[in-house]
Design brief:
538 residues; alpha/beta; seven-stranded mixed β-sheet; globular
Length: 538
């Protein structure tokens, strides 16, 4: 037998063994008729119930009521738990973990935003959790082992349930790069092989049900490492509970059920076994209204602490200012993006002085997490807009480098990009009729450098003057972008930054000072419309 024939034989034998094991599971199938899987994802600290969110007190009560009806409830979360709004930020996710402990979660995947406070805080949160965090594709470079348990097996009287965790490889750049510098996130074919290895182990352990708990999503930027890719390339997964892209999903892909609840507890996932198959019965806002009083007390205590320390008024806004992502901050010029970048550029130049002032400012759209509702603006509202407390830098770069990073950060537009450049002091045109030409892939990134910078992007002006690719410009960015976060890996190349000075202030401080000192406490309607800095040719 030649090598090619031997390889075909090996693949056929492996496929036969997988199918045989799956058939064995079917023959000796467990009784799942009274099993219910409740699931959340991308809660981002939105634990309070209101007119937009179910909230954790009601979710807890739903679990109790289902158990009272005789269901065996499994409670799972697909990641992004401890960061995203002011309640989560206030105690670095500690209250979020306390709530999940009280509800009785069985497992959670690690999301990219779990790393926002650094590894020490994440490890502390995981120690506090009474449930395991799992991920099979995060490798600790120091030990060459997985960062946490790759999977768990729940042994119940009604059957054995294997649950494997998966984390988006985008974490390499969607988290502050220095926070994940010691970790490797498997992607593409290596991710598929690793996932198949662990799923095969769970099959060998005679698991009756295999669940992938994945913070992967379906974004085009993650092509090859999406939940759909895993389902298509890994044999043996029965259910894939997804997260990361904030979508609502209820799909049958091959033999697997793919589900996701969106985000922010706007829905609660509910999977049951009916008519011989697993089915999603999504629970919507308003379907249940009764709340668990004990969990409600925990939520109220956490909210009280936020109000007590962060309720000081800093001004008012006449009209609502949208913080929408799509269409909005991650796809096009947005009024909130203009406002935030103006605030940062103004504050930076107050620090730098006229002689050393910056020419412009770029804010990654994904760093702006919400907008303002009309009325009073409190400190907590400011910190909800910028919950990451990113430090600011003024960097000196050539015009050609500025062109590269803006083109790289619009490469997926009109699809959403966390790196989409909201700007002040800069005007540019994006021509969507021209396809993005990929150059080499940036190191430790899902993104590609532009092969021909300037093919899709034209920078019209910087600092009020015509753009010159050979000129040097002083641009204000946050430390996330400076470190190569999102699609800004071009700034980490050798000699990309000619000079860099830390400004000693955070983005949220800039926003607060701009409202108080520059606008004298009132945001007027001029900021309810875009300023015309970004032109998009559709």
């Amino acid at each position: 037998m030649n090598q090619k024939g031997y390889d075909i034989f090996k693949r056929s034998l492996y496929s036969f063994l997988v199918v045989f094991l799956l058939l064995c599971q079917t023959v000796f199938a467990a009784d799942f008729s009274k099993v219910m899987i409740l699931h959340t994802n991308d809660t981002h600290g939105f634990v309070m119930g209101d007119d937009k969110h179910i909230g954790m007190p009601i979710i807890s009560q739903i679990k109790k009521e289902m158990e009272a009806k005789g269901y065996n409830v499994i409670m799972l979360d697909a990641g992004d738990i401890i960061q995203g709004n002011i309640l989560a930020k206030y105690d670095k996710g500690q209250s979020c973990i306390k709530l999940m402990n009280s509800i009785g979660y069985d497992a959670a995947a690690i999301g990219n935003h779990e790393f926002d406070y650094g590894l020490d805080v994440l490890n502390e949160r995981m120690r506090e959790a009474k449930f395991p965090f799992i991920s099979s594709n995060i490798i600790d470079n120091n030990t060459e082992n997985t960062f946490v348990k790759p999977y768990i097996v729940l042994e119940k009287e009604y059957g054995k349930i294997g649950i494997i965790g998966l984390t988006t490889p985008e974490t390499k750049t969607s988290a502050l790069p220095e926070n994940v510098a010691t970790l490797n996130f498997l992607e593409g074919k290596v991710l598929m092989a690793s996932t198949q290895m662990y799923v095969s182990k769970m099959i060998a352990e005679k698991c009756d049900l295999i669940i992938a708990l994945g913070h992967l999503g379906s974004k085009d930027s993650c092509m090859g490492s999406r939940s759909e890719d895993v389902i298509a390339n890994v044999n043996g997964i029965d259910i894939f509970i997804d997260g990361h892209d904030h979508e609502v999903k209820n799909n049958k892909i091959g033999n697997a059920l793919q589900v996701e609840t969106g985000c922010y507890t706007k829905h609660l996932g509910c999977i049951v076994y009916e008519d011989g198959k697993w089915q999603e019965k999504l629970i919507n806002l308003g379907d249940y209204t009764k709340a668990d009083k004990n969990v409600e007390k925990l939520v109220n205590n956490a909210s009280y602490n936020v109000e007590l320390h962060l309720s000081q008024s800093v001004g008012e806004v006449v009209n609502d200012m949208s913080g929408e992502i799509v269409p909005g901050l991650r796809t096009q010029e947005a009024a909130m993006g203009d406002f935030c970048s103006d605030a940062i550029l103004w504050q930076s130049n107050q620090i730098l002085g006229q002689a050393d002032k910056a020419d412009g400012c770029i804010v990654n759209g994904g760093g702006i997490r919400t907008g303002f509702n009309a009325g009073k603006i409190k400190v907590k509202d400011i910190q909800s807009v910028f919950p990451f407390d990113d430090k600011l830098w003024v960097i000196t770069i050539k015009g050609s480098k500025l062109l590269e990073i803006i083109e790289a950060s619009t490469q997926n537009t009109p699809s959403a990009m966390g790196g989409f450049p909201q700007v002040s002091g800069i005007e540019y045109t994006l021509n969507l009729t021209v396809p993005y030409q990929k150059g080499p892939q940036y190191p430790r990134s899902m993104y590609y450098a532009p092969a021909a910078p300037g093919s899709r992007i034209t920078i019209n002006s910087v600092g009020g003057k015509a753009f010159d690719p050979d000129a040097e410009y002083r641009i204000v960015v946050n430390d996330f972008m400076k470190g190569g976060g999102d699609s800004y890996s071009g700034l980490t190349a050798e000699s990309a930054i000619i000079a860099a000075d830390e400004l000693g202030i955070t983005d949220s401080d800039c926003l607060q000072n701009y409202i108080i000192e520059r606008l004298h406490g009132k945001i007027t309607p001029e900021y309810n419309k875009i300023q015309g800095r970004i032109k998009i040719i559709p």
